[in-house]
Design goal:
Helix 1 crosses helix 2, helix 2 packs antiparallel against helix 3 and helix 5 crosses helix 6. It contains 16 helices and 17 strands. It has three domains: 62 residues; 109 residues, Aspartate Aminotransferase, domain 1 (Alpha-Beta Complex), CATH 3.90.1150.180; 227 residues, Aspartate Aminotransferase, domain 2. The strands form four sheets. The protein has a seven-stranded mixed sheet with strand order 5-13-12-11-10-6-9, sandwiched between helices. A six-stranded mixed sheet has the order 1-16-17-15-14-2. Strands 3-4 form a two-stranded antiparallel sheet. It has 438 residues and is an alpha/beta fold. The protein binds pyridoxal-5'-phosphate. Pyridoxal-5'-phosphate binds next to helix 5 and strand 11.
């Protein structure tokens, strides 16, 4: 393109605004960047078309604007799709966030929520922060502090995803990592023989992988005694947030796929000083980091300056209160994650058949599987009848994702799979409408 033919920012903005329903300031900024880029590239002899490049950028921007999607992947806690489903209220409200309605004085943020969590999990006290990574950072900073030493098994120096690496987070907290044992085997004696003093012993549930074969590790149940023998506190990061291994909220008790997942109530009962977990994994609530445990330990966390930097906001407090009240009142079976997780296969087969029939698409219902996801219960899956679309290649997947609202299916071995376990039944008509466009 000749430099003289470059459109003005105004003209390009006008053209782009026809196709993209985004605030004018955003379109102007993209148009200006594209024109500058075209001018520079024309000078260097390989001209770029500003209309094409601006269109490409706006398409990327508008598809990354936060919106709701239908999760037909069968991964119930899909990290890319926001883990557990969340409700967003759009009516703004003032609240008694830090106001005590009884005394008319300033009150404590999340006071009720903390008492509710403690009563539900069976701990002395509780503290909620922004997410579990924040909970871990705060725990290490408050309990070990600058230059304090924290012992961890080498088998648990893990990367959780999104480049979250435990050794890096520990370094950021100021605590010194004391590596114990080997990658595949760590024993009680390895901890007992750690030279020098340690302030804390940390055990991290290796949530997204499983070490098999010639392995040995010290279970959560033995860790408190070891830590206390060393004169240290025991921090248990159970990650996934299964509240009780007996799952009293599920008729017929714990499903097989939960086998071996450490649970908050039991790890606390075994004597952990603090237990940390995410709000949006197996708990089924909003993004949050929940800390439960002994009063003296949790109070040290609450007083640390990092606690202020990772504190929770009003919507999270509201949503997490509803989640924990469901557990406390025996109705946690109604939490969307658990409804999806325990939905019977006959029911899913019926729904899938109905969606296939009303959509007019062609495909077959085959035996498939769903995953709890978000790194919970690695290696275990939930049997699920799924829809394999005939001739469902990448273009089929794309067409479903381009539907309004987007329907995100799974891709497996070159075919497109629609799995309704992760879809609430009221969204079935949307899936059918998307399939009807194929
Ligand atoms: C998921 C996970 C985390 C990180 O939790 P976020 O809530 O995503 O910050 C930390 N530790 C373990 C063991 C986890 O499974």
């Amino acid at each position: 393109m000749d430099l003289r033919d470059l459109p003005s920012v105004d003209a390009l903005t006008g053209d782009l605004s026809i196709d993209f329903d985004l605030p004018r300031a955003v379109v102007v900024s993209v148009a200006r960047d594209a024109i500058n880029e075209a001018r520079d590239s024309a000078r260097s002899g390989s001209p770029v078309d500003p209309v094409l490049s601006a269109t490409r950028r706006l398409r990327t921007l508008s598809s990354s604007r936060l919106r709701s999607v239908v999760n037909a992947t069968g991964v119930l806690l899909h990290t890319n799709l926001g883990r557990a489903p969340v409700g967003v209220t759009d009516t703004p409200f003032f609240s008694n966030l830090e106001f005590d309605l009884e005394s008319g004085q300033r009150g404590k943020r999340a006071h009720y929520l903390h008492e509710l969590i403690a009563a539900t999990a069976g701990s002395e006290t509780a503290l909620v922060v922004n997410n579990n990574a924040g909970a871990l950072l705060l725990s290490l900073a408050a309990l070990a502090g600058r230059d304090g030493r924290v012992a961890v098994s080498r088998g648990e120096l893990i990367e959780i995803g999104g480049s979250f690496r435990l050794p890096d987070l520990m370094a950021a907290s100021g605590a010194h990592l004391v590596e114990v044992g080997t990658t595949n085997r760590t024993r009680r004696s390895d901890f007992i023989e750690v030279p020098g003093t340690v302030e804390a012993v940390l055990k991290v549930h290796p949530s997204n992988y499983r070490v098999e074969g010639f392995t040995e590790d010290v279970p959560f149940s033995e860790m408190p005694e070891i830590a206390h023998h060393l004169g240290a506190l025991f921090i248990a990061d159970v990650g996934s947030g299964l509240l009780d291994e007996a799952t009293p909220w599920i008729d017929g008790g714990p499903p097989g796929w939960l086998n071996g997942e450490p649970a908050v109530r039991q790890v606390l009962g075994q004597g952990a000083d603090i237990v940390l977990f995410s709000g949006d994994k197996l708990l089924g609530g909003p993004q949050a980091g929940v800390i439960v445990g002994k009063r003296n330990a949790v109070e040290r966390l609450a007083k640390h300056p990092i606690a202020r930097a990772v504190r929770v906001n009003t919507p999270t407090i509201a949503s997490l209160t509803a989640t924990f009240e469901a557990y406390a009142s025996g109705t946690a079976g109604t939490i969307p994650f658990w409804q999806m997780a325990v939905s019977p296969t006959e029911e899913l087969r019926r729904r899938t058949g109905h969606v296939l029939q009303i959509s007019g698409a062609t495909g077959s219902i085959v035996d498939g599987e769903s995953l709890p996801g978000a790194g919970s219960v690695p290696g275990l899956s939930i049997p699920t009848p799924v829809l394999r679309i005939d001739g469902g290649d990448e273009r089929t997947w794309r067409a479903l994702a381009d539907h309004e609202p987007p329907v995100i299916a799974a891709r497996r071995d070159g075919s497109t799979i629609v799995n309704l376990r992760s879809v609430p039944p009221e969204e079935d008509p949307i899936v059918a409408a998307a399939l009807a466009t194929l």
